[in-house]
């Protein structure tokens, strides 16, 4: 009776549970373990009662070592978080391994259970994305851009490669907000963001620095590449139309950029691109100015 009740309790758990003996042989699995094995293309011969779990996970060095350390009493506990995605679904699990003792404190093996933490991981990923993106445009934010620029400069320095950045600023944006309202202004920011992503999708990292100012980081791109990308973006924006009630709104941008080596001073690089942007504005806006720091 007690064994039947114990079995029913373990089978009622949503978490996958198995017991292994000191050699790693599986001596018990609950219904959730069986269901998971069958639903994920496995079979009970390889991961059911009688199979050796150490053999099952022998190619996963960290997991194999962790379970072995518990069985040999070198560790009192082992845990490991891992992804288990399917073609249609993202999933994550948290694996825990603890010694299995009898009432006389003799060690009989280990308890292994897997907890589905997909909801937790999806929430974590969403929070991480919120921390690095601009909520209006979904582009990266200034904080992320600064961090990424620093990392890419270090990488370019190690590989002795060039890189480039572009700064993009909407011309007369205040007038757009004052004339058509902030909702149309926000719509213009989003449309510009989509266009930037489309033009640079193969090579760039786009960010909204704030207001109507944007930045594009272009690893391993020289001044010639930069000019082509900037002119392409400028011409695409010139053809962009935005509905504002019964009117059609056209916007223009000023673009400044620089190409540089990874061992250059980050502050100097940003200031050079910024000065190029304001040169474009002083010259009448709606144009590109590129400064090659490598020449």
Automatic annotation (TrEMBL):
Keyword S-adenosyl-L-methionine: no
SUPFAM superfamilies associated with the record: Nucleotide cyclase, PYP-like sensor domain (PAS domain)
Keyword Nucleotidyltransferase applies: yes
Coiled coil: none
A Pfam family matched in the record: GGDEF
Domain GGDEF per the UniProt entry, residue ranges: 161-293
PANTHER family from the UniProt entry: DIGUANYLATE CYCLASE DGCM-RELATED, REGULATORY COMPONENTS OF SENSORY TRANSDUCTION SYSTEM
Name the record gives this protein: Diguanylate cyclase
Species this protein is from: Paenibacillus chungangensis
